[in-house]
């Protein structure tokens, strides 16, 4: 009854192995499944079917990968290596079966799931949008540990295999077919019929270019280029990247057996590494956030939403609502030009995906048909929810609330405010219980986080509905307390302010940003300010300064740049210049003179990074103590997903824990003595550190 594997007879002498793990809603490879799979292979060794089809008994997943809890349970590197070796041996036995095998893939086929499929002779997949194929282990600080580093290059060639393994990205069905990873993409209902037909035909060989890429002289050149690019992007913080390259290289130069031995050894070492522990912690936090359920109420059904404001934020919210959530979206703007811009934002990105082969013409037509817009509220009465994405002005947002309520329809009003307390928006509302904050991050279609902010009077069913909407949009929601700046902008502001102070002291823009990028942030703080835009940044800083005083007060550099006509990237100039095709970021040699800045010797990177991080740590601890976030784990997840805090460190609280309380307090005291009292650990930070278990 509790078995995960079922072997049955199919048509034309075929056997069908169905995987349906009873211990999980999606198929995962766990410890209980390994001996069961070995027993099935023992049984198959004595049979001579026409072929074996391997499929899933789950409605929407093939195999989503290994059970992360199984990995967490490994006591040491040796245990991790042994686990990888077990997987390698099982899949080697599958690959050695004396009859043809085919994986029938529908839904996620990731990590160990794809490694199992690669051990089959052949693979086909469904054309369903749920179907994804990839080896994303690098996102957990690991490498494919069950033969994937050896089998994937042999199947699709070195460039494509390295791209997938080093980036962790996944493939849609037709992308997988173009690479030769699967030989057919068919409707899910046709998988078994097509598989039976194909097994009567010869198996296709790996494509010529794929085979050539594994040979001299291309092989060493491709490995060198991949290593250089990956290390440049990762800044050397992710040991899984050189481990993948080493396993692939040994397999190509000394044989697959040696490559798999290195793969297993590296898997165990990586499993115990700090980056992998941090990344797995973030994975658990993300899964937990996605499973948040408000027991007080069930979400209301939402099929259509309105969006007030069609700028970059409104356009992005509309796009994820249409493409990810499958909702009808109606924009309201003040002018035809604004409305056209709102509609164009999503249309341009959908058409770009179509040009890349990621969307078919019928899919494009269906998506674009979900857009509509007007200069008034016609059509809004049949929406279930409205998202407000107008400028950060309390009076304007309260006016939006009043206009929506005047429609006489019980609409949920979700504000995309980045700093204003939701209770203030609801203060004059006739139905404050329908008002909630829903803070997205730019660009909306790329940033995974959304802060969900109920005020004290928000109806629990409204909270549940907005959480369900965020999940449908592909977002990871974190519920935060209604307060000025919420969590992400509150910890981001002192970090950005310190970068501005460093600039005012004579540190170069490029040096400041380079130091923070080398530490692990995806962009430097000054480049980030350019991306956000000075008008938005200045307004958030003003609101936070009014609420929290001097610790949120930035230097006056941004207003001076605004007075000179600079507004950040969108205006073509901010701390950088954005010239030429594509608006490429360039250092502006005229900036120091324009701002009358002193010129100082470059500060050592360690000190510069600490100056930006320590105020962030202090503010994060205050947010936890005040209940703005519910846990340090949520604070870590929001910081990584919202501001790009280095994932390999696990977030600010995880980073402080890794450093150790005594070391951190010593470093903060030393910096405070050197550069100012704002770097001293506050009471909340000291209290949190005292409550942490000793290593």
TrEMBL record:
Pathway: Lipid metabolism; fatty acid beta-oxidation. It holds the Pfam family 3HCDH. Its EC number is 4.2.1.17. Transmembrane segments: none annotated. CDD domains: crotonase-like. It is an enzyme of class 4 (lyase). Keywords: Fatty acid metabolism, Lipid degradation, Lipid metabolism, Lyase, Multifunctional enzyme, NAD, Oxidoreductase. Residues 485-578 form the 3-hydroxyacyl-CoA dehydrogenase C-terminal domain. It catalyses: a (3S)-3-hydroxyacyl-CoA + NAD(+) = a 3-oxoacyl-CoA + NADH + H(+). Residues 305-482 form the 3-hydroxyacyl-CoA dehydrogenase NAD binding domain. In the central section; belongs to the 3-hydroxyacyl-CoA dehydrogenase family. In the N-terminal section; belongs to the enoyl-CoA hydratase/isomerase family. This is enoyl-CoA hydratase. It comes from Pseudaeromonas paramecii. The gene is fadJ.
